[in-house]
Amino acid sequence: MNQKNKGMFLEKILNRTIRVLWENEIAFIEKKSIPISIISFNKTTDNQVISKFKHHKSTVDYIGMYKSKFICFEAKTTNLDNLPMSNFKEHQIDYLNLIHNNGGIAFVVVYFSLYNEFYKVSVELIKEHYKQNKSLKYLTVKENSRPLSLEFPGYLDIV
């Protein structure tokens, strides 16, 4: 799997998950778009973007409401036996922590493709390892996070 498409499997699963939650009136969650403007694109080929402008830093991948609480989470995929902390931007950690500290629900969904396992990882665990370590080991996640099973028809029980 190439780097560009590494997270597409998890994104498809999460998009199906939020659709199931919405359709069953369990939660309202949506994927945030990246705040960019296209400056130019190649008109002679397949409209490939040549240059773009990012308006401001994006916060997290998903936001919404669950049981009258604000919910937000980031989605990360790794094909290693660890989650590199370089996959996170400091403002993402700060945002998740801010929501958590103000009574919201904030977490990270991690897919370890090497083991074909999904986990709901707490903000505290991410924050604890973000500045101290280069990565969060698979066994640390497994021992300190909630495993998420892929349910029929292809969604995760994230709430």
Tell me what you see in this structure.
- It is an enzyme of class 3 (hydrolase).
- This protein is of the alpha+beta class.
- The chain has a single domain, classed as Trna Endonuclease, Chain: A, domain 1 (3-Layer(aba) Sandwich).
- The protein has four helices and twelve strands.
- It has helices at residues 8-23, 90-101, 123-130, 138-144, and strands at residues 27-31, 36-41, 49-54, 62-66, 69-78, 82-84, 105-112, 117-122, 135-137, 146-148, 150-151, 155-156.
- Strand 4 and strand 5 form a beta hairpin.
- The longest helix is centred in the N-terminal third of the chain and has 16 residues, at 8-23.
- The protein starts with 7 loop residues before the first helix and ends with a strand.
- Mean pLDDT is 87; it is low at 52-56.
Provide the CATH architecture: 3-Layer(aba) Sandwich
N→C terminal distance: 29 Å
Q: What series of H and E elements makes up the topology?
A: HEEEEEEHEEHEHEEE
Structural class category: alpha+beta
How many individual helices? 4
Q: Averaging pLDDT over every residue, what do you get?
A: 87
Estimate what percentage of residues fall within beta strands. Answer: 35-45%
The helix content is: 25-40%
CATH class: Alpha Beta
Tell me the overall shape: globular
Q: Tell me the radius of gyration.
A: 17 Å
